[in-house]
Write a structure and sequence with these properties.
By secondary structure, this protein is α/β, with parallel strands linked by helices. It is 40% helix and 21% strand. It contains 11 helices and 11 strands. A hairpin with a 4-residue loop joins strand 9 and strand 10. Helix 3 packs antiparallel against helix 4. The protein is globular. The model has no long low-confidence stretch (mean pLDDT 95). This is inorganic diphosphatase. Its cofactor is Mn(2+). It catalyses: diphosphate + H2O = 2 phosphate + H(+).
Length: 320
């Protein structure tokens, strides 16, 4: 019998999934102590992650003096709260053999199901931390400085310093309120500092660059992989395009993908160089109105995988 609720984000954890796991565990414990009208909490909550945090996340945790959560990849027999995802493929192994008691997210609703009603909160905002800010406010729990810092960093990371198409007014308002609590005066320069940690790919192999934030999708029966790396300046990686493309090809062949795409997103230019290897090059022209004539196409204004790349691709595949 497990006497804990394990709060866990998705595979290949990013700053939002790690920070929000830590913050939601804190909030659940506050609810356990004080009582909460909207969720009865009887167990101690513990944040866990499914893999090593990236450079950006490590920077954020260090800045606010928070320990890196322990890694947990198997959910069998455990009580679990899902954060920043509700897809089985993104979740811990044996999720079907776990008791899920809560989901807090901002993505499309996934395929996780439960036998009983649970605490489920999902807003169409840019970041899970924005949803958590709402829950703090709604239940009257005071936000400590370091938790505010984690949430602020998560919002700035997920919304790409408010430049992503996923950004909402709610994200901006939450960030402003959290910055005051965390003692961050210049939100944008802090956001650029956070994002620059993830931009430094100098010591990474081509495979690590591709796989750092890579997700698999089933698009009308076809296996499609979509990776994304956000850069302060695309020029820092241009000399490695051939090497990255060759590695992308290997991944496609070994993983038996129909298509693999890598979003090389330039934060300052606000656009994405989309590197593509596909069995049907016409899908890029159908989806984005630009013909794939080499290794990649430039998509001005495209910053979000979740909103601007995956849904239009899914639509194209559905109509093939």
């Amino acid at each position: 019998m497990h006497h804990q609720i394990y709060v866990v984000g998705h595979k290949k954890p990013d700053t939002d999934s790690v920070a929000s796991a830590i913050v939601f565990a804190y909030l659940l414990n506050a609810w356990k102590k004080a009582g909460c009208k909207i969720m009865k909490v009887e167990k101690e909550a513990v944040p866990v992650i499914q893999g090593e945090p990236n450079a950006e996340t490590k920077f954020v945790l260090e800045k606010f003096g928070i320990a890196v959560p322990e890694i947990m990849t198997d959910g069998e027999g455990k009580t679990i709260a899902l954060i920043d995802h509700s897809d089985k493929v993104q979740s811990v192994d044996n999720i079907d053999k776990a008791e899920i008691v809560a989901v807090v997210d901002h993505h499309k609703i996934g395929d996780v199901t439960t036998p009983n009603p649970i605490f489920f909160v999902n807003f169409p905002v840019g970041c899970t931390a924005t949803v958590l800010k709402f829950l703090f406010d709604k239940t009257g729990v005071e936000i400590p400085k370091e938790m505010a810092g984690l949430m602020l960093a998560a919002i700035l990371s997920d919304t790409v310093v408010f430049k992503s198409a996923t950004t909402t007014e709610a994200d901006k308002e939450a960030a402003e309120a959290l910055a005051k609590i965390a003692g961050i005066e210049d939100i944008v320069s802090f956001g650029v500092e956070v994002k620059s940690k993830l931009s430094d790919v100098s010591g990474m192999s081509a495979k690590d660059i591709i796989m750092r934030d890579f997700k698999d999708y089933n698009m009308s029966g076809k296996k499609v992989g979509v990776g994304q790396i956000e850069l302060i300046d695309l020029k820092t990686i241009e000399h490695r395009f051939d090497e990255i493309y060759d590695e992308l090809n290997k991944i496609k062949v070994e993983g038996a993908y129909h298509s693999v795409v890598l979003m090389l997103t330039d934060i300052m230019k606000e656009g994405t160089e989309l590197m593509v290897i596909t069995d049907e090059p016409k899908i890029i022209e159908i989806t984005f109105g630009k013909k794939l004539e080499g290794k990649s196409v430039w998509l001005p204004g495209v910053m979000s995988r979740k909103k601007e790349v995956v849904p239009p691709l899914e639509k194209t595949f559905a109509n093939l």
